[in-house]
Amino acid sequence: MNCETGRLLTETNDPAFAEHALSCPSCLIGMHARYYEAPAGLERKIRQSLRQESSAASPWRWMAIAASLLLAASGVWNIALLRSRVDPRQLIAANVLSAHVRSLAGTHLLDVPSSDQHTVKPWFNGKLDFAPPVKDLEGFPLLGGRLEYIDGRPAAALIYGRAKHTINLFIWPSQTPSSETARILNGYNQLNWSSDGMAFWAVSDLNETELRQFVSLYRRNQAQ
Amino acid sequence: MNPARKQALFERTVLPHLNAAFNLARWLTRDSHDAEDLVQEAFLRAFRSFETFQGNNADDSRAWLLAVVRNTCFTWLRKKGGQPTLEFDEQVHGGADESPNAESILLNQAALGSLQDCLEALPLEFREAIILRDLEELSYKEIADIARVPAGTVMSRLARGRKRLKECLAGGLR
User: Fold this and answer.
1) Which residues pair with A34 in a beta bridge?
2) E-assigned strands of A117-187?
3) Spatial CB neighbours of B61, under 8 Å, sequence gap ≥ 6
4) Closest to A21 in 3D by CA, of B105, B155, B116, B126
5) Are residues A13 and A46 in the same domain?
6) Mutating which of A31, A35, A44, A48 best tests the B interface, going by the most B Cβ atoms within 10 A?
7) Which of A46, A57, A108, A208 is the most exposed, fewest CB within 10 Å of its CB?
8) Distant-in-sequence, close-in-space partners of A60: CB < 8 Å, separation ≥ 6
9) 3-state secondary structure of A199
10) Do residue B36 and residue A29 have CB atoms under 8 angstroms apart?
11) A51 is in which domain, residue-wise?
């Protein structure tokens, strides 16, 4: 007896089906076990939750995630930049070097060509909001003055000579105190210090010893 | 896959098997409310891993969905506890096979009522095999994939499940 026979028997209410049913419980189950259909409304609930899931995973969400990650990364990057930030003096040193090289490369070394400090100093009046100390120095003749722009503000450049070497001394107001510091950048010697609320940066292809001589001479004269 | 397309494809290929999913969940949990919750959960799970579905016909998608439903239900049942497990069953009832006397049984409404009770009383793994085979008419191989056991185990579970069902029916009718 197969299941189909069993079905016919049960439809005709034949007791013979009982026998078959026990010999073939799978028929019994297939025909008589309850098949539970999904309750009404379940499909709608599922569709709804799929839609939510789908929109939650939409590209907008990924974009939002990407954007916030980017923001976080840029924050970290900025902090890292701040922390690892180059010493501002390195930037000034580079500025000073550029100004020095530029002054020698072109024809614009001097705005006011004069070896007389009393000519050079007044020349800056009205051009700068500060009065740079201009000193004529023995062994380092004053050649003149020039207007410069260093570290985002106007600066005075005093030009001194030493044999065939040129010294640019840049001066600008600065509240950052600095002791005398020497450095070499691209083969040029630099010496900087601060005094009387001004920053002084001397730069030259002169050797360091002579540049130091120049600086100490200038500072002695300035103090007088 | 673009989310709208994925959803449309899922609703076209997987959602039509909702009744099969519910039927299985109901038989495994023996409770309609639990089955409803678990089927919803299973559909969400299936949707999330829809990319991994490799089949290309309705039988494949039904078997795939039923596997997700089955796992969702088993996880939940294990957490909840209380259902007779097969390990227990195999240890205690692994023995004799005494067929009930067929002639002494008449099939009637009471018998159909006890069919329901007897099926529900079966250990989970037997019930699972029987529902998938006799109600969903899946192949041994499909059931083996869903239950993650060898096909031989499926056959033995079916045989033993049916045998116990007979015993239960005979006992209830005697």
Assistant:
1) none
2) 142-150, 153-162, 165-173, 181-185
3) B13, B14, B17, B53, B55
4) B105
5) no
6) A35
7) A108
8) none
9) strand
10) no
11) 42-84
DSSP secondary structure code for residue A95 in this structure? H
Query: A197 lies in a domain?
Result: yes
Architecture of domain B1-82: Orthogonal Bundle (1.10)
**Whether complex ipTM tops 0.85:** no
- Give residue B2's identity as a one-letter amino acid code: N
- A93 and A197 within one domain: yes
Q: Do both A17 and A79 map to the same domain?
A: no
- Asked whether the beta carbons of A97 and A186 are under 8 A apart, the reply is yes
Claim to verify: residue A66 and residue A79 sit in the same structural domain: yes
pLDDT of residue B110: 56
Give the DSSP H or E segment for A31: helix A25-32
CB B165 within 8 A of CB A25: yes
CATH topology for B84-174? Arc Repressor Mutant, subunit A (1.10.10)
Confidence band of B100 (pLDDT split at 50, 70, 90): very low
- Which of A23, A38, A58 is closest, CB to CB, to B18? A38
- Domain membership of residue A37 (yes or no) is no
Cα A2 from chain centre: 82
| Closest in A39, A55, A57 to B36, CB measured | A39
Residues A19-30 pLDDT 10s: 666 667 777 777
CB-based contact A50 B133, cutoff 8 Å: no
For residue B11, the chain A residues in CB contact (below 8 A) are 47, 50
* Side chain identity at residue A143, one-letter code: L
- Residue A9 in contact with residue A20, Cβ under 8 Å? yes
Regarding whether A103 and A175 lie in a shared domain, the answer is yes
Mark whether A60 and A169 lie in a shared domain.
no
A125 and A23 housed in the same domain:
no
Same fold, B1-82 and B84-174: no
